Amino acid sequence: MASFDLTSYKALSFDIYATLIDWESGIFSQFLPLLGKLPKDHPLWDKSLTDLRAYLLTQYSIHEHKLEVQYPDEKYSVLLSKVYENVAADIGIPVTREEAEAFGGAIGQWPAFADTVAAMQKLGKYYKLIALSNVDKVSFGNTLKNGLSGVQFDAIYVAEDIGTYKPNPNNFNYLVEHARQDFGIEKSDICHTAQSLTFDHIPVASLGFRPAVWISRGGGSMGMGDLEAVKDKVNIGATYETLGDMAVAVEAAFSKIKN
């Protein structure tokens, strides 16, 4: 098998939330008002803080995916409002419509990982940077103003424009078609870079993309980081804990070419 060559690609396509944005921290912080409504004798308080966080994030992920399949053309912020209502119902806590809408509208407040902005600025010296995200345009715009301030994408493809949510193959076909139209970049020139094995790495492998990069971020808490369980379904050329680690490897690889 040929070694993985970071310099052989012309574009990097990115999952954003979980890869560049620390959505688990952002989501959990938005659940804190809900936890504040829990009675002192609620069974969730028997869990450790770590287990409580994992429980809420898992419930979030389950409801999110079900709703994305059920409502593929719904705006992401609206879906998240429904997710909040469903999670609240699971634990028996009533919430208002205003509270649910506030949850759905806070996507742009989720923080970036500490290494993200500097890493993206370095990667932009060597590749076209393309966002492929399961959100709506307003939410992504807010993220650009906040957590991703200082990051310059060459193209942004979001679910609101595509009409479906990842892992639907349609989203990745849209990426291929538009990268070709917008930049003259072929599928074989794209390295998909993502944390989620389920929503990103499995579909790109099934569609015949060249080896991708897994940004593991410690595996995450939403059931998206168990590589051993899906190793026969993915095609990963390299794994990095952080995007910053990838940027270091990219600079070293291109430096060898110059020398």
Offer a few descriptive terms:
48% helix, alpha/beta, HAD-like_sf, Rossmann fold, 259 residues, six-stranded parallel beta sheet, 11% strand, 2 domains, DNA polymerase, domain 1, 11 helices, 6 strands
Compile the SSE list and pairings.
Layout: E1 11-14, H1 23-35, H2 49-70, H3 76-90, H4 97-104, H5 116-123, E2 128-133, H6 137-145, E3 155-158, H7 159-162, H8 169-183, E4 190-194, H9 197-206, E5 212-215, H10 227-230, E6 236-240, H11 243-258
Task: Write up this protein.
Helix content is 48%, strand content 11%. It is α/β, with parallel strands linked by helices. A six-stranded parallel beta sheet has the order 3-2-1-4-5-6. α6 (137-145) links the parallel β2 and β3 (155-158). α3 (76-90) crosses α4 (97-104). GO terms for molecular function: hydrolase activity. Keywords: Hydrolase. It comes from Trichoderma harzianum (Hypocrea lixii). This is Haloacid dehalogenase.
| CATH architecture descriptor of the largest domain | 3-Layer(aba) Sandwich
Q: What structural class do helix, strand and pairing data support?
A: alpha/beta
CATH class of the largest domain: Alpha Beta
**How many discrete structural domains?**
2
What is the CATH H-level superfamily of the largest domain? Answer: HAD superfamily/HAD-like
The counted number of beta strands is: 6
Query: Percent of residues in beta strands?
Result: 5-15%
How would a textbook summarize the main sheet? 6 strands, parallel
Strand order of the largest sheet: 3-2-1-4-5-6
The average pLDDT is 93
